[in-house]
Design goal:
- The protein has two domains: 218 residues, Rossmann fold (3-Layer(aba) Sandwich), CATH 3.40.50; 36 residues, no CATH class.
- 44% of the residues lie in helices and 13% in strands.
- The chain is built from eight helices and seven strands; from the N terminus they run βαβαβαβαβαβαααβ.
- A seven-stranded parallel sheet has the order 3-2-1-4-5-6-7, with helices on both faces.
- The protein is globular, with a radius of gyration of 17 Å.
- The relative contact order is 0.15.
- Keywords: Oxidoreductase.
- It comes from Novosphingobium aquae.
Length: 273
Protein backbone atom coordinates (compact mmCIF):
# COMPACT_ATOMS: atom_id res chain seq x y z
CA UNK A 1 0.00 0.00 0.00
CA UNK A 2 2.77 2.43 -0.95
CA UNK A 3 0.26 4.78 -2.56
CA UNK A 4 -2.40 4.90 0.17
CA UNK A 5 -4.07 8.30 0.25
CA UNK A 6 -2.83 9.29 -3.21
CA UNK A 7 -5.01 10.26 -6.17
CA UNK A 8 -3.89 9.20 -9.64
CA UNK A 9 -5.01 10.02 -13.17
CA UNK A 10 -4.25 7.54 -15.95
CA UNK A 11 -4.98 8.69 -19.49
CA UNK A 12 -5.80 6.21 -22.25
CA UNK A 13 -6.92 3.74 -19.60
CA UNK A 14 -10.32 2.80 -21.01
CA UNK A 15 -9.48 -0.45 -22.84
CA UNK A 16 -9.78 -3.67 -20.89
CA UNK A 17 -6.68 -5.27 -22.41
CA UNK A 18 -4.61 -2.08 -22.45
CA UNK A 19 -1.55 -0.88 -20.60
CA UNK A 20 -3.58 1.93 -19.04
CA UNK A 21 -6.01 -0.46 -17.38
CA UNK A 22 -3.12 -2.55 -16.03
CA UNK A 23 -1.43 0.56 -14.67
CA UNK A 24 -4.65 1.79 -13.08
CA UNK A 25 -5.23 -1.55 -11.40
CA UNK A 26 -1.68 -1.68 -10.04
CA UNK A 27 -1.89 1.84 -8.63
CA UNK A 28 -5.25 1.03 -7.05
CA UNK A 29 -3.88 -2.20 -5.59
CA UNK A 30 -1.19 -0.12 -3.88
CA UNK A 31 -3.80 2.17 -2.33
CA UNK A 32 -4.42 5.00 -4.80
CA UNK A 33 -7.78 6.37 -5.85
CA UNK A 34 -7.63 6.29 -9.65
CA UNK A 35 -9.35 8.33 -12.34
CA UNK A 36 -9.81 6.27 -15.51
CA UNK A 37 -9.67 8.57 -18.51
CA UNK A 38 -10.07 7.97 -22.22
CA UNK A 39 -11.61 9.64 -25.26
CA UNK A 40 -14.89 7.79 -24.79
CA UNK A 41 -16.07 7.66 -28.41
CA UNK A 42 -14.65 8.07 -31.93
CA UNK A 43 -14.17 11.71 -32.93
CA UNK A 44 -12.37 11.52 -36.27
CA UNK A 45 -10.42 9.21 -38.55
CA UNK A 46 -7.54 9.04 -36.05
CA UNK A 47 -9.76 7.66 -33.27
CA UNK A 48 -11.53 4.55 -34.63
CA UNK A 49 -13.90 2.69 -32.35
CA UNK A 50 -11.77 -0.47 -32.19
CA UNK A 51 -8.67 1.43 -31.03
CA UNK A 52 -10.05 3.63 -28.25
CA UNK A 53 -11.55 3.25 -24.81
CA UNK A 54 -15.31 3.72 -24.94
CA UNK A 55 -17.36 5.16 -22.11
CA UNK A 56 -18.95 1.85 -21.06
CA UNK A 57 -15.59 0.08 -20.99
CA UNK A 58 -14.07 2.92 -18.96
CA UNK A 59 -16.87 2.63 -16.42
CA UNK A 60 -16.45 -1.14 -16.15
CA UNK A 61 -12.73 -0.77 -15.45
CA UNK A 62 -13.34 1.93 -12.84
CA UNK A 63 -15.99 -0.21 -11.16
CA UNK A 64 -13.43 -2.99 -10.74
CA UNK A 65 -11.04 -0.75 -8.80
CA UNK A 66 -10.86 -0.40 -5.03
CA UNK A 67 -10.26 2.94 -3.33
CA UNK A 68 -12.71 5.13 -5.22
CA UNK A 69 -12.17 4.74 -8.93
CA UNK A 70 -13.94 7.23 -11.21
CA UNK A 71 -14.05 8.05 -14.93
CA UNK A 72 -13.60 11.18 -17.00
CA UNK A 73 -13.87 11.51 -20.77
CA UNK A 74 -10.89 13.47 -22.09
CA UNK A 75 -9.39 14.14 -25.50
CA UNK A 76 -5.71 14.69 -24.72
CA UNK A 77 -5.35 16.74 -27.90
CA UNK A 78 -7.45 19.48 -26.28
CA UNK A 79 -5.75 21.42 -23.45
CA UNK A 80 -9.12 22.57 -22.07
CA UNK A 81 -10.26 18.95 -21.80
CA UNK A 82 -6.99 17.95 -20.14
CA UNK A 83 -7.22 20.76 -17.59
CA UNK A 84 -10.79 19.72 -16.82
CA UNK A 85 -9.50 16.19 -16.15
CA UNK A 86 -6.99 17.51 -13.63
CA UNK A 87 -9.70 19.59 -11.96
CA UNK A 88 -11.99 16.54 -11.83
CA UNK A 89 -9.41 14.58 -9.83
CA UNK A 90 -9.31 17.32 -7.20
CA UNK A 91 -13.07 17.81 -7.03
CA UNK A 92 -13.94 14.10 -7.02
CA UNK A 93 -11.12 12.79 -4.84
CA UNK A 94 -9.60 15.76 -3.01
CA UNK A 95 -6.17 16.06 -4.62
CA UNK A 96 -3.96 15.17 -7.58
CA UNK A 97 -0.75 13.35 -6.69
CA UNK A 98 0.04 11.11 -9.67
CA UNK A 99 -0.43 11.68 -13.39
CA UNK A 100 0.30 8.94 -15.94
CA UNK A 101 0.42 10.02 -19.59
CA UNK A 102 -0.50 6.71 -21.19
CA UNK A 103 -2.80 7.77 -24.07
CA UNK A 104 -1.18 7.07 -27.41
CA UNK A 105 -1.60 6.16 -31.06
CA UNK A 106 0.38 3.10 -32.10
CA UNK A 107 -1.82 1.93 -34.94
CA UNK A 108 -0.84 4.32 -37.75
CA UNK A 109 2.02 2.31 -39.22
CA UNK A 110 2.95 2.88 -42.88
CA UNK A 111 6.00 3.03 -45.14
CA UNK A 112 7.67 6.43 -45.09
CA UNK A 113 6.42 7.46 -48.53
CA UNK A 114 2.80 6.64 -47.60
CA UNK A 115 2.60 8.71 -44.41
CA UNK A 116 0.32 11.70 -44.92
CA UNK A 117 0.50 15.02 -43.05
CA UNK A 118 -2.72 14.02 -41.28
CA UNK A 119 -1.15 10.73 -40.18
CA UNK A 120 1.89 12.54 -38.82
CA UNK A 121 -0.14 15.14 -36.96
CA UNK A 122 -2.49 12.55 -35.47
CA UNK A 123 0.37 10.63 -33.85
CA UNK A 124 2.33 13.66 -32.66
CA UNK A 125 -0.80 15.38 -31.35
CA UNK A 126 -1.69 12.47 -29.07
CA UNK A 127 1.65 10.93 -28.15
CA UNK A 128 3.74 14.05 -27.61
CA UNK A 129 1.56 17.17 -27.51
CA UNK A 130 -1.08 15.34 -25.47
CA UNK A 131 1.57 14.31 -22.97
CA UNK A 132 2.75 17.92 -22.79
CA UNK A 133 -0.80 19.11 -22.06
CA UNK A 134 -1.11 16.48 -19.33
CA UNK A 135 2.23 17.33 -17.80
CA UNK A 136 1.39 21.02 -17.77
CA UNK A 137 -2.07 20.56 -16.23
CA UNK A 138 -0.82 18.14 -13.59
CA UNK A 139 2.18 20.27 -12.66
CA UNK A 140 0.01 23.33 -12.17
CA UNK A 141 -2.22 21.53 -9.66
CA UNK A 142 0.63 19.73 -7.91
CA UNK A 143 2.66 22.93 -7.51
CA UNK A 144 -0.37 24.72 -6.09
CA UNK A 145 -0.98 21.91 -3.59
CA UNK A 146 2.60 22.28 -2.38
CA UNK A 147 3.37 18.66 -1.53
CA UNK A 148 5.10 17.40 -4.64
CA UNK A 149 3.85 14.78 -7.07
CA UNK A 150 4.70 12.14 -9.63
CA UNK A 151 4.34 12.44 -13.40
CA UNK A 152 5.09 9.35 -15.51
CA UNK A 153 4.97 9.18 -19.30
CA UNK A 154 4.56 5.84 -21.02
CA UNK A 155 7.19 6.14 -23.73
CA UNK A 156 8.45 3.02 -25.52
CA UNK A 157 11.51 1.17 -26.67
CA UNK A 158 10.90 3.47 -29.65
CA UNK A 159 12.06 6.33 -27.43
CA UNK A 160 15.55 4.84 -27.69
CA UNK A 161 15.64 3.02 -31.07
CA UNK A 162 14.15 3.42 -34.52
CA UNK A 163 11.64 1.06 -36.12
CA UNK A 164 10.37 0.78 -39.71
CA UNK A 165 6.86 2.00 -40.52
CA UNK A 166 6.85 3.98 -37.27
CA UNK A 167 8.37 7.36 -38.16
CA UNK A 168 5.85 9.55 -36.32
CA UNK A 169 5.56 7.09 -33.44
CA UNK A 170 9.32 6.91 -32.96
CA UNK A 171 9.67 10.69 -33.25
CA UNK A 172 6.93 11.23 -30.68
CA UNK A 173 8.48 8.82 -28.20
CA UNK A 174 11.98 10.26 -28.66
CA UNK A 175 10.36 13.65 -28.03
CA UNK A 176 9.10 12.45 -24.65
CA UNK A 177 12.70 11.92 -23.56
CA UNK A 178 13.54 15.57 -24.16
CA UNK A 179 10.27 16.78 -22.67
CA UNK A 180 10.85 14.74 -19.53
CA UNK A 181 14.42 15.90 -19.07
CA UNK A 182 13.46 19.56 -19.33
CA UNK A 183 10.33 19.29 -17.19
CA UNK A 184 12.20 17.41 -14.47
CA UNK A 185 14.65 20.28 -14.12
CA UNK A 186 11.92 22.88 -13.86
CA UNK A 187 9.62 20.95 -11.53
CA UNK A 188 12.24 19.62 -9.13
CA UNK A 189 11.92 22.73 -6.99
CA UNK A 190 8.28 21.76 -6.34
CA UNK A 191 9.15 18.20 -5.37
CA UNK A 192 7.53 16.90 -8.58
CA UNK A 193 9.36 14.09 -10.33
CA UNK A 194 8.96 13.44 -14.07
CA UNK A 195 10.02 10.15 -15.61
CA UNK A 196 9.39 7.89 -18.60
CA UNK A 197 8.78 4.17 -18.67
CA UNK A 198 10.02 2.57 -21.90
CA UNK A 199 8.53 -0.89 -22.45
CA UNK A 200 9.37 -3.11 -25.37
CA UNK A 201 6.54 -4.86 -27.21
CA UNK A 202 3.55 -5.77 -25.06
CA UNK A 203 0.67 -7.80 -26.50
CA UNK A 204 -2.23 -5.64 -25.40
CA UNK A 205 -5.24 -5.17 -27.67
CA UNK A 206 -3.14 -2.74 -29.70
CA UNK A 207 -0.15 -5.05 -29.44
CA UNK A 208 -2.14 -7.90 -30.99
CA UNK A 209 -2.96 -5.67 -33.95
CA UNK A 210 0.74 -4.81 -34.29
CA UNK A 211 1.66 -8.52 -34.17
CA UNK A 212 -0.66 -9.32 -37.07
CA UNK A 213 0.36 -6.23 -39.03
CA UNK A 214 4.12 -6.79 -38.86
CA UNK A 215 3.88 -10.57 -39.24
CA UNK A 216 2.06 -10.04 -42.53
CA UNK A 217 4.64 -7.49 -43.68
CA UNK A 218 7.43 -9.96 -42.97
CA UNK A 219 5.64 -12.91 -44.58
CA UNK A 220 5.42 -14.81 -41.29
CA UNK A 221 2.68 -16.35 -39.21
CA UNK A 222 1.92 -14.50 -36.00
CA UNK A 223 3.32 -17.45 -34.03
CA UNK A 224 6.61 -17.31 -35.94
CA UNK A 225 6.79 -13.54 -35.58
CA UNK A 226 6.32 -13.83 -31.82
CA UNK A 227 8.84 -16.66 -31.54
CA UNK A 228 11.43 -14.58 -33.39
CA UNK A 229 10.70 -11.65 -31.09
CA UNK A 230 11.16 -13.77 -27.97
CA UNK A 231 14.43 -15.15 -29.32
CA UNK A 232 16.07 -11.72 -29.45
CA UNK A 233 15.03 -10.74 -25.90
CA UNK A 234 17.52 -11.86 -23.24
CA UNK A 235 14.77 -12.80 -20.78
CA UNK A 236 13.07 -14.86 -23.48
CA UNK A 237 9.64 -13.25 -23.74
CA UNK A 238 7.89 -10.03 -24.77
CA UNK A 239 6.70 -7.68 -22.07
CA UNK A 240 3.51 -8.12 -20.08
CA UNK A 241 1.18 -5.29 -19.02
CA UNK A 242 2.09 -6.02 -15.42
CA UNK A 243 5.78 -5.38 -16.10
CA UNK A 244 5.07 -1.81 -17.15
CA UNK A 245 2.50 -1.31 -14.39
CA UNK A 246 5.02 -2.39 -11.74
CA UNK A 247 7.59 0.10 -13.02
CA UNK A 248 5.02 2.90 -12.96
CA UNK A 249 3.98 2.04 -9.40
CA UNK A 250 7.62 2.14 -8.30
CA UNK A 251 8.22 5.55 -9.89
CA UNK A 252 5.06 6.86 -8.21
CA UNK A 253 6.14 5.68 -4.77
CA UNK A 254 8.36 7.22 -2.13
CA UNK A 255 10.94 4.56 -3.03
CA UNK A 256 11.62 6.59 -6.19
CA UNK A 257 11.65 10.01 -4.51
CA UNK A 258 15.19 10.74 -5.76
CA UNK A 259 14.64 9.62 -9.36
CA UNK A 260 13.64 12.20 -11.94
CA UNK A 261 14.34 12.99 -15.58
CA UNK A 262 14.92 9.31 -16.33
CA UNK A 263 13.68 7.00 -19.09
CA UNK A 264 13.50 3.54 -17.54
CA UNK A 265 13.73 0.56 -19.87
CA UNK A 266 11.32 -2.29 -19.15
CA UNK A 267 12.38 -4.53 -21.99
CA UNK A 268 13.71 -7.81 -20.68
CA UNK A 269 17.17 -6.65 -21.68
CA UNK A 270 16.27 -6.02 -25.33
CA UNK A 271 16.91 -2.26 -25.05
CA UNK A 272 20.25 -1.72 -23.27
CA UNK A 273 20.53 2.06 -23.28
Amino acid sequence: MRLAGKVAVVTGAGREAGLGAAIARRLAAEGAAVVISDIGAPRDAATPEDMIGGTAEMQAIAASLPHGGSTFVCDVRDPVSVKALADHAVVAHGSLDIWVNNAGIGYIMKPLEDVSPDDWRAVIDVNLTGAWFGLQAAAEVMARQGRGGRIVNIASQAAKSGFPHAQAYTASKHGLVGLTRSAAIELGAHGITVNNVCPNHVTTGLGAWQNAHFAELQGKTVDQYMADMAARIPLGRPGLPGDTAAAVAFLCSDDAAYITGESMNVSGGEEPH
